[in-house]
Write a structure and sequence with these properties.
There is one protein chain. By secondary structure, the chain is of the alpha/beta class. It has eight helices and 13 strands. A six-stranded mixed β-sheet has the order 7-8-9-4-10-11, with helices on both faces. Strands 1, 2, 3, 5 and 6 form a five-stranded antiparallel β-sheet that branches. The protein has a two-stranded antiparallel ribbon with strand order 12-13. Strand 1 and strand 2 form a beta hairpin. The relative contact order is 0.17.
Length: about 250
Protein backbone atom coordinates (compact mmCIF):
# COMPACT_ATOMS: atom_id res chain seq x y z
CA UNK A 1 0.00 0.00 0.00
CA UNK A 2 1.29 3.46 -0.93
CA UNK A 3 1.31 5.71 2.13
CA UNK A 4 2.60 8.75 0.24
CA UNK A 5 2.46 9.65 -3.43
CA UNK A 6 3.18 12.83 -5.36
CA UNK A 7 2.37 13.83 -8.90
CA UNK A 8 3.94 16.76 -10.79
CA UNK A 9 4.86 18.62 -7.61
CA UNK A 10 6.53 22.02 -8.07
CA UNK A 11 7.62 24.49 -5.40
CA UNK A 12 9.30 27.90 -5.32
CA UNK A 13 11.30 30.06 -2.94
CA UNK A 14 10.30 33.42 -4.35
CA UNK A 15 11.34 33.22 -8.01
CA UNK A 16 13.63 30.24 -7.45
CA UNK A 17 12.13 26.98 -8.73
CA UNK A 18 13.27 24.52 -6.02
CA UNK A 19 11.15 21.45 -6.81
CA UNK A 20 10.50 20.51 -10.44
CA UNK A 21 7.87 17.96 -11.47
CA UNK A 22 8.41 15.63 -8.51
CA UNK A 23 6.84 12.16 -8.79
CA UNK A 24 7.64 9.81 -5.91
CA UNK A 25 5.82 7.14 -3.92
CA UNK A 26 6.44 5.52 -0.53
CA UNK A 27 5.20 2.08 0.49
CA UNK A 28 3.85 1.32 3.95
CA UNK A 29 6.28 -0.34 6.33
CA UNK A 30 9.41 0.85 4.51
CA UNK A 31 12.30 3.20 5.17
CA UNK A 32 13.06 5.61 2.32
CA UNK A 33 16.14 7.87 2.29
CA UNK A 34 16.37 11.08 0.29
CA UNK A 35 19.94 11.90 -0.74
CA UNK A 36 21.69 14.39 -3.00
CA UNK A 37 24.08 17.34 -3.01
CA UNK A 38 23.47 20.48 -0.98
CA UNK A 39 20.75 22.59 -2.55
CA UNK A 40 19.15 19.65 -4.35
CA UNK A 41 15.74 20.28 -2.74
CA UNK A 42 15.74 17.42 -0.20
CA UNK A 43 14.47 19.37 2.79
CA UNK A 44 11.90 21.23 0.70
CA UNK A 45 10.54 17.92 -0.58
CA UNK A 46 10.19 16.65 2.98
CA UNK A 47 8.40 19.85 4.02
CA UNK A 48 5.98 19.47 1.10
CA UNK A 49 5.24 15.88 2.11
CA UNK A 50 4.54 17.12 5.65
CA UNK A 51 2.22 19.85 4.39
CA UNK A 52 4.56 22.56 5.68
CA UNK A 53 5.52 24.22 2.40
CA UNK A 54 3.30 25.56 -0.42
CA UNK A 55 3.38 23.61 -3.66
CA UNK A 56 1.65 23.00 -6.95
CA UNK A 57 0.63 19.51 -7.99
CA UNK A 58 -0.74 16.64 -5.93
CA UNK A 59 0.30 14.92 -2.72
CA UNK A 60 -1.72 11.97 -1.44
CA UNK A 61 -1.52 10.63 2.12
CA UNK A 62 -3.10 7.19 2.49
CA UNK A 63 -4.89 7.74 -0.83
CA UNK A 64 -6.42 11.06 0.24
CA UNK A 65 -5.30 14.48 -0.96
CA UNK A 66 -3.05 15.97 1.72
CA UNK A 67 -4.74 19.35 1.31
CA UNK A 68 -8.12 17.91 2.33
CA UNK A 69 -6.88 16.35 5.60
CA UNK A 70 -8.14 18.11 8.73
CA UNK A 71 -5.07 19.47 10.54
CA UNK A 72 -5.89 17.51 13.69
CA UNK A 73 -6.02 14.22 11.78
CA UNK A 74 -2.91 14.99 9.74
CA UNK A 75 -1.04 15.63 13.00
CA UNK A 76 -1.88 12.08 14.12
CA UNK A 77 -1.03 10.46 10.79
CA UNK A 78 2.41 11.97 10.26
CA UNK A 79 5.14 13.25 12.54
CA UNK A 80 7.82 15.72 11.49
CA UNK A 81 11.39 16.09 12.73
CA UNK A 82 13.07 19.32 11.66
CA UNK A 83 16.79 19.89 11.43
CA UNK A 84 16.49 23.41 12.87
CA UNK A 85 13.75 23.97 15.45
CA UNK A 86 14.45 26.86 17.81
CA UNK A 87 10.82 27.65 18.69
CA UNK A 88 10.95 25.38 21.75
CA UNK A 89 14.35 26.43 23.14
CA UNK A 90 12.88 27.88 26.34
CA UNK A 91 10.93 24.74 27.26
CA UNK A 92 12.18 21.93 29.44
CA UNK A 93 13.06 18.63 27.79
CA UNK A 94 9.99 16.95 29.30
CA UNK A 95 7.68 19.70 28.02
CA UNK A 96 9.23 19.51 24.54
CA UNK A 97 8.55 15.77 24.35
CA UNK A 98 5.00 16.32 25.68
CA UNK A 99 4.34 18.53 22.63
CA UNK A 100 4.20 15.29 20.65
CA UNK A 101 0.97 14.44 22.49
CA UNK A 102 -0.85 17.68 21.60
CA UNK A 103 -2.81 16.13 18.69
CA UNK A 104 -4.55 13.88 21.23
CA UNK A 105 -5.47 16.62 23.71
CA UNK A 106 -8.32 19.10 23.62
CA UNK A 107 -7.59 22.82 23.72
CA UNK A 108 -8.87 23.02 27.28
CA UNK A 109 -7.62 19.63 28.47
CA UNK A 110 -4.39 18.58 30.11
CA UNK A 111 -2.10 15.60 29.60
CA UNK A 112 -3.73 12.28 30.42
CA UNK A 113 -2.03 9.46 32.35
CA UNK A 114 -1.56 7.74 28.97
CA UNK A 115 0.15 10.85 27.56
CA UNK A 116 2.50 10.98 30.54
CA UNK A 117 3.31 7.28 30.22
CA UNK A 118 4.14 7.64 26.52
CA UNK A 119 6.36 10.66 27.18
CA UNK A 120 8.17 8.80 29.96
CA UNK A 121 8.77 5.84 27.64
CA UNK A 122 10.20 8.14 24.95
CA UNK A 123 12.50 9.83 27.47
CA UNK A 124 13.78 6.43 28.57
CA UNK A 125 14.10 5.06 25.03
CA UNK A 126 16.25 8.01 23.96
CA UNK A 127 18.23 7.93 27.23
CA UNK A 128 17.37 11.56 27.99
CA UNK A 129 15.29 11.22 31.18
CA UNK A 130 18.16 12.71 33.21
CA UNK A 131 17.68 16.00 31.30
CA UNK A 132 13.91 16.24 31.84
CA UNK A 133 14.09 19.51 33.82
CA UNK A 134 16.77 21.16 31.69
CA UNK A 135 15.95 23.83 29.14
CA UNK A 136 16.43 22.68 25.56
CA UNK A 137 18.67 25.69 24.93
CA UNK A 138 21.27 24.32 27.38
CA UNK A 139 21.86 21.14 25.37
CA UNK A 140 24.42 20.45 22.65
CA UNK A 141 23.34 20.00 19.04
CA UNK A 142 23.39 16.22 19.26
CA UNK A 143 21.53 16.21 22.57
CA UNK A 144 18.86 18.55 21.17
CA UNK A 145 18.36 16.26 18.22
CA UNK A 146 17.71 13.30 20.52
CA UNK A 147 15.08 15.34 22.40
CA UNK A 148 13.35 16.38 19.17
CA UNK A 149 13.41 12.76 18.03
CA UNK A 150 11.72 11.76 21.30
CA UNK A 151 9.05 14.42 20.68
CA UNK A 152 8.41 12.98 17.22
CA UNK A 153 8.20 9.43 18.58
CA UNK A 154 5.70 10.58 21.22
CA UNK A 155 3.22 11.36 18.44
CA UNK A 156 3.07 7.62 17.65
CA UNK A 157 2.23 8.44 14.04
CA UNK A 158 2.36 5.66 11.43
CA UNK A 159 4.40 7.94 9.12
CA UNK A 160 7.57 9.73 10.26
CA UNK A 161 9.36 12.38 8.18
CA UNK A 162 12.87 13.18 9.43
CA UNK A 163 15.22 15.87 8.16
CA UNK A 164 18.81 14.92 9.09
CA UNK A 165 17.69 13.10 12.26
CA UNK A 166 21.23 12.14 13.31
CA UNK A 167 22.99 15.43 12.59
CA UNK A 168 25.62 16.00 15.32
CA UNK A 169 24.59 12.77 17.06
CA UNK A 170 27.41 10.52 18.27
CA UNK A 171 28.07 7.11 16.74
CA UNK A 172 26.50 5.22 19.64
CA UNK A 173 23.17 6.98 19.26
CA UNK A 174 23.31 6.90 15.46
CA UNK A 175 23.39 3.11 15.78
CA UNK A 176 20.45 3.17 18.18
CA UNK A 177 18.52 5.39 15.77
CA UNK A 178 19.21 2.98 12.90
CA UNK A 179 17.97 -0.03 14.88
CA UNK A 180 14.91 1.95 16.05
CA UNK A 181 14.03 2.71 12.41
CA UNK A 182 14.36 -0.96 11.51
CA UNK A 183 12.12 -1.94 14.41
CA UNK A 184 9.44 0.65 13.66
CA UNK A 185 9.21 -0.40 9.99
CA UNK A 186 8.97 -4.04 11.04
CA UNK A 187 5.90 -2.99 13.01
CA UNK A 188 4.34 -1.59 9.82
CA UNK A 189 5.23 2.07 10.29
CA UNK A 190 6.87 4.14 7.55
CA UNK A 191 9.94 6.37 7.68
CA UNK A 192 11.18 8.93 5.15
CA UNK A 193 14.48 10.59 6.07
CA UNK A 194 16.92 13.04 4.54
CA UNK A 195 20.48 11.86 5.17
CA UNK A 196 23.93 13.01 4.10
CA UNK A 197 25.49 9.73 5.23
CA UNK A 198 25.36 7.59 2.07
CA UNK A 199 26.55 4.49 3.91
CA UNK A 200 23.55 4.65 6.20
CA UNK A 201 21.23 5.59 3.34
CA UNK A 202 22.27 2.43 1.45
CA UNK A 203 20.83 0.38 4.32
CA UNK A 204 17.34 1.76 3.70
CA UNK A 205 14.68 -0.04 1.65
CA UNK A 206 14.48 2.70 -0.98
CA UNK A 207 16.63 5.66 -1.98
CA UNK A 208 15.43 8.83 -3.69
CA UNK A 209 18.31 10.64 -5.42
CA UNK A 210 17.79 14.37 -6.01
CA UNK A 211 19.75 16.93 -7.98
CA UNK A 212 18.86 20.52 -8.94
CA UNK A 213 15.30 20.19 -7.66
CA UNK A 214 14.52 17.01 -9.57
CA UNK A 215 14.26 13.34 -8.66
CA UNK A 216 16.98 11.63 -10.68
CA UNK A 217 16.15 8.14 -9.50
CA UNK A 218 14.00 6.30 -6.99
CA UNK A 219 15.03 2.69 -6.51
CA UNK A 220 15.72 -0.09 -4.06
CA UNK A 221 19.20 -0.08 -2.58
CA UNK A 222 20.16 -3.26 -4.46
CA UNK A 223 19.30 -1.74 -7.87
CA UNK A 224 22.47 -1.74 -10.06
CA UNK A 225 21.46 1.66 -11.47
CA UNK A 226 21.73 3.27 -8.05
CA UNK A 227 25.53 3.21 -7.80
CA UNK A 228 25.89 4.66 -11.28
CA UNK A 229 23.33 7.36 -10.50
CA UNK A 230 25.10 8.33 -7.26
CA UNK A 231 28.43 8.47 -9.09
CA UNK A 232 27.02 10.89 -11.64
CA UNK A 233 25.18 12.96 -9.05
CA UNK A 234 28.28 13.38 -6.88
CA UNK A 235 30.60 14.05 -9.87
CA UNK A 236 32.38 10.67 -9.91
CA UNK A 237 33.84 11.25 -6.45
CA UNK A 238 32.61 8.03 -4.87
CA UNK A 239 33.85 4.45 -4.77
CA UNK A 240 31.69 1.48 -3.79
CA UNK A 241 33.00 -1.60 -2.00
CA UNK A 242 31.17 -4.75 -1.01
CA UNK A 243 31.61 -5.51 2.69
CA UNK A 244 29.93 -8.68 3.98
CA UNK A 245 26.24 -8.25 3.12
CA UNK A 246 26.23 -4.54 2.26
CA UNK A 247 27.83 -1.82 0.18
CA UNK A 248 30.18 0.77 1.61
CA UNK A 249 30.81 4.18 0.01
CA UNK A 250 34.14 6.01 0.33
CA UNK A 251 35.26 9.34 -1.20
CA UNK A 252 37.42 8.98 -4.27
Amino acid sequence: MKVLRTQHVNAWYGNHHVLKQIDVSVEQGTWTCVVGPNGAGKTTLLKVLAGLFPFEGEVWLNGQSLCTYPLSERAKQLAWLSQHDTAVDDLTVQDVVMLGRLPYQSWWGSASPSDRDIVEECLLTQHISQWRERSLSTLSGGERQRVLLARMLAVQAPLMLMDEPIANVDIQHQSKWFHAVQETTRQGNTVVSVLHDLNLALRADQVIVMQDGRVVLQSTTDDPQLHQCLQQTFEQRLRFHRLADRWVVVPD
